[in-house]
Amino acid sequence: MDDILKLEISGPVVMTIAGAIGVVFFLVLFLRPTARWALTSIIAVVAAALLGWLTVWLVEDVMDVFHVGLTPRVWFWAISCFAALGLASVSFRHSRPWRKVVAALSIPVFLLVAALGINTEFGLNKTLGSALGISTEGAIQLNKPNPDASIPTGPLWQSWKPPSTMPTKGEVGTQVIPATVSGFNARPAGIYLPPAALTDNPPRLPLFVLMMGQPGLPDPQYVSAALDEFAAKNNGLAPIAIVADQIGPDEDDNLCLDTAKFGNVEKYINEDVVNWAKANLNILQDREHWTIAGYSNGGQCAISFAVKYPKMWGNVVDISGEEFPGAEDPAGNLATIFGGNQADYDAQKPINIMQGKQFPDTTAVFTVGSDDVTYVAAAKAVSAAARASGMTVTYYEVPNGGHVGIALNAGLTKGFEVLYPRLGLSR
User: Fold this and answer.
1) Tens digits of residue pLDDT in 63-100
2) How far apart are the first and last CA of the chain?
3) In 3-state terms, what secondary structure has residue 160?
4) Number of C-beta neighbours around residue 112 at 10 A
5) Secondary element (H or E) of residue 193
6) 236-293 tens-digit pLDDT
7) Is pLDDT above 80 for 146?
8) How far is the C-alpha of 366 from the C-alpha of 377, rounded, in Å?
9) DSSP per-residue letters across 258-302
10) Among residues 265, 378, 366, 270, which one has the least CA distance to residue 318?
11) Enclosing H/E stretch for 221
């Protein structure tokens, strides 16, 4: 079963095969047409394509369902799917039995090809399991931290000498982080151990806590891919990463706050996850080596926690984050979470928390896709407030990036480019 869930469903090879199958079915439906049937089919294809365009326009521009701009390729896949389904539908009328059979078979094929194309464009679900919201990572073996391990007096890259037996890549897996203090219902966290952590006498390493988007999985594949590349260039050195679940199995936008409705999310990340990391991971204990990070919903959580707990988090990476908790539905959250108390809601917004305060030894990285209009505005506003509050700020727009896969991967890369020297992992 795991082998099926780990099946790759994105990438050029998969899309070339799927696209070719879809085109074949489309062309077969046009075999041996009568003049009347061909005219009817062309009208159906054009009408369905227009309906597809109208549907995408309503979903994106009028209803703003996804709260992000859809790329031209997403529009292409959606409209093409409508057009193909239009052809399949008209093929049931006044046609021979073989054409009806092909039409029936083509409908799920067209839907699947379009779904794969859109998924590839979004770039967040690389496997069947991730698309279905099922984690395929098994539990990772952890060695208890050595309390007698020496702490480097200078940057780790200067003193670390990797053994010849060190693996070339890190390991990923999952661990259940008990919600001892918070009681929050969280899914198992993703864990990444870099090559240096897998040696017989591993050094203490920085801690990197990442929160993904909503909806989404605490999936370590993105951060592990990025860190493996950096580790390969820096003698196996990389932070130990926890991909913590800040939204829970119901995947609610809980605003990363402690609330009666959604539970104690803030306590879970900043107490339960932190306490577990101290007890179970071979990490450096000072704030300069600790990073709180997040993507989209998780990005907002990250900057909120960084300004609420500055003695804990010395670094923050906000990738395509929202401007404030619940920014997608402020009116609804004001009513349901804050009981209509605007002052209480405003007090939870990172920009307001930073006002009148200074964070002189905090490194902050804000990244966002250049085409992600709503989130560009949020990133500019929050990064400007962070800079004004004394943080060392890097702001980066991912060229031609939207809100999804490209923005996430490039955001992680930029974040580690900035942080590696700060964490003592490179010059």
Assistant:
1) 665 655 666 778 888 888 888 888 888 888 777 788 88
2) 45
3) coil
4) 15
5) strand 189-193
6) 999 999 999 999 998 888 999 999 999 999 999 999 999 999 999 999 999 999 999 9
7) no
8) 12
9) EETTTEEHHHIIIIIIHHHHHHHS-B--SGGGEEEEEETHHHHHH
10) 366
11) helix 221-233
Tell me the sheet residues that pair with 172.
192
Find out whether 412 and 319 touch, Cβ atoms under 8 Å: yes
Q: Which pLDDT band holds residue 404 (cuts at 50, 70, 90)?
A: confident
Domain ranges of the chain: 2-122, 137-422
Contact by Cβ (8 Å): 74, 115: no
Q: Which tokens sit at 276? A: 């577990």
Structure tokens at 236: 């196996």
Span of 135-139, 156-160, 173-177, 382-386 with lowest mean pLDDT: 135-139
Q: So what's the pLDDT on residue 124?
A: 60
- Apex CA 102: angle with CA 88 and CA 93, to 5°? 50
Q: CB burial class (10 A; 0-12, 13-18, 19+) of residue 407?
A: buried
Residue 372 CA to residue 403 CA, distance in Å, equals: 6
Neighbours of 156 (CB within 10 A): 22
Alpha-carbon dihedral sign for residues 181, 186, 187, 189: negative
Q: Is 398 helix (H, G, I), strand (E, B) or coil?
A: strand
- C-alpha–C-alpha distance, residues 148 and 204, integer Å: 11
The token duo for 41 is: 């089919």
> 76 near 49, Cβ under 8 Å?
no
- What average pLDDT does the structure give for the chain? 88
d(CA 117, CA 74): 8
CA distance 368 to 108: 35
Length of the chain: 427
Q: Rounded to an integer, what distance in angstroms lies between the CA atom of residue 7 and that of residue 126?
A: 8
Name the token pair of 237.
């050195």
Which of the two residues, 6 and 327, has the higher pLDDT score?
327
Fold category of 137-422 in CATH: Rossmann fold (3.40.50)
**How far is the C-alpha of 267 from the C-alpha of 272, rounded, in Å?**
7
Please give the Cα distance from 227 to 409 (Å, whole number): 11
Assess contact for 309 and 315: CB atoms under 8 A: no
Determine contact, residues 365/303, Cβ cutoff 8 Å.
no
Hunting for tokens 């829970």 — which residue is that?
248
Residue 307: CB partners within 8 Å, gap ≥ 6?
A: 350, 353, 354, 357, 359, 389
Q: Which residues contact 115 (CB under 8 A, 6 or more apart)?
A: none
Q: What residue type is 129 in one-letter code?
A: G
